[in-house]
Amino acid sequence: MSDARPWVLTVGPLLPALQSQLEQHYRLLDLWRCDSPAALLAEQGAHVQAVVTTGVHGASANLIEQLPALRAIVCFGVGTDAVDLKAASARGIQVSNTPDVLNDCVADAAMALLLAVARQVVVADRFVRAGRWGAERFGLTTALGGKRCGILGMGPIGQAIARRASAFGMQVSYSSRRPKPQLAYAYHESLLALAERSDFLVLAVPGGTATDGLVNQQVLEALGANGMLVNVARGSVVDQPALIEALSNGRIAGAALDVFADEPHVPAALRELDTVVLSPHVASGTQETRQAMADRVLANLAALFATGRVLHPVREGAQ
């Protein structure tokens, strides 16, 4: 008896529970598991109707070209900067992501990182573990109440961060592609103006060419010697060498980073600084959120094969 299940290609590792569901419902090809991806694509690529991928692995124009029957690229996550949206659009291939379900967890992580760098939580932990408490006095840290929190990007995640920062008594302002009059936060047209008026600059914008290197030396200089940077967006949004220079020379006071320019490789210069809090790209990494993301992936695939349309389409230029 022939197997009538649609063919689906996975580009990188997924949650085990999601992987299991995909194996149950589809004829699955795991590109990341095979010794010769090129051979797999040459032999089976013509059958593939959907690709499941992540923000890390994406889907290149070269991959898309090798899948003549491809109908949709289904992303586990909100970021699609690693997907060649132009190549997909040219072929009429739908791209979907998992919006909304991770907003709160990413915003929670942003505030956790902000608190950690402001109150030196990680440094204090090492201080106690090293047995220095009692023999030495731990230094004073920075309060959040009354401080200015500038948010770059006021989409759903940025708004969730803004609500949390406001609850901590912070003065919230933001910069984005366009103002949102319905929000009660001050709007700054330029990132430079936002940085100049912020004690903490929190990044919550998509990756991609439109935001590549936005936080550069000039922006860091505007943030100033008492300013701190929090990044839960994409490593590409920050000029990483400029950030390292600013931190090493005290041009800004600190940084809390969940994302980096070349993951999982983090420069030693960042790892060695006590003024930096580091996290391994896990802002959305809770059991609840990852399960909700997996459910969205499965729902997008089910809708594609039932109706011909994914539930959460992403358009070219959406980044």
From TrEMBL:
Family, as annotated: Belongs to the D-isomer specific 2-hydroxyacid dehydrogenase family.
Name assigned to this protein: 2-hydroxyacid dehydrogenase
Record carries keyword ATP-binding: no
InterPro entries recorded: D-isomer_2-hydroxyacid_DH, D-isomer_2_OHA_DH_cat_dom, D-isomer_DH_NAD-bd, NAD(P)-bd_dom_sf
Signal peptide annotation: none
Species for this entry: Pseudomonas putida (Arthrobacter siderocapsulatus)
Domain named D-isomer specific 2-hydroxyacid dehydrogenase catalytic: residues: 16-314
The D-isomer specific 2-hydroxyacid dehydrogenase NAD-binding domain, residue ranges: 111-283
Entry-linked CDD domains: HPPR
Keyword tags: NAD, NADP, Oxidoreductase
Gene Ontology MF term list: glyoxylate reductase (NADPH) activity; hydroxypyruvate reductase [NAD(P)H] activity; NAD binding
A GO cellular-component term linked to this record: cytosol
Highest classification ranks of the organism: Bacteria, Pseudomonadati, Pseudomonadota, Gammaproteobacteria, Pseudomonadales
Cross-referenced Pfam families: 2-Hacid_dh, 2-Hacid_dh_C
Gene3D superfamilies: NAD(P)-binding Rossmann-like Domain (3.40.50.720)
